[in-house]
Amino acid sequence: MKRFLIAFFFLVLFGGASSVYALTYKPEKPFPGSPLLLEVPSGARKLLFLGKSFYPFSFKGKTFILAAIPLDTRPGLYRAELDGEEKLSFEIRIFPRRYPSERLTVPPKMIHYPPEVLARIKREVRLIRKTLAGFSPESLLDGPFVWPAAGRLSSPFGFRRIYNGVPKSPHSGLDIALPEGTPVKAANRGRVALTGDFYLNGKTVILDHGLGIYTIYCHLKKILVRRGELVEKGERLALSGKSGRVTGPHLHFGVYIRGVKVDPKVLLEVF
Ligand SMILES: [Zn+2]
User: Fold this and answer.
1) Ligand 1 centroid to 149 CA: how many Å?
2) Is pTM, for the whole model, over 0.85?
3) Distance from the CA of 254 to the center of ligand 1, in angstroms?
4) Does 12 fall in a domain?
5) 266 by DSSP, 3-state: which?
6) Best label site of 66, 157, 165, 236, fewest CB within 10 Å?
7) How much distance in Å is there from the Cα of 206 to the middle of ligand 1?
């Protein structure tokens, strides 16, 4: 295995006897919870990073790999291996990121569910998580991701509420405040992997974009697509609403790559 390494922040150069590869990635300073978009040589077949495999897709004659950094990753240097015509090994520095949090004191009744509701929530969370951790080998991606709707960001990715001293899991997506009935569009081309009406997430659509990349849209008022249907980027999926456990109408928009939740805002900025 050849191992020529010149790490230079986000630009990595590989020099062989006959060729030099430039490998770039975005964001320039990746962090826990960020997606990582790498432009790789055209012969690349697979990236091994943080114990997971990520696969290439092409766009405008270039080859890209979309990887993910879990929220609980410690900042530092991590080795990545790119498999292809030749093996390339390099390091990626993960930078620290502070996520906002908020401490709240609430009556215990508000954060404890009766057993039958809890059983339903657990069942639904398992189904949603399993769907988001799936893998379809064919990429359906059609270039850069687009916003599913335009509106004020009312709650960022990674935001953590601490109820009565107990931290809840960090916000798995971002919230866009929208008047009820606003069209919600597919962030990219994909196949409808799941639709349903869930206790916490309300009416929900999950799109499978291939290569283990998924987007999820929650708290909808009306779902306009069916499971198995192929939808184009920008096509209407649903109308926004306030279904499920919410305090007001908004769209919860989430992005998962190989089962890892990442900040959708960063994904929209890296292309
Ligand atoms: Zn949300």
Assistant:
1) 14
2) yes
3) 8
4) yes
5) helix
6) 165
7) 14
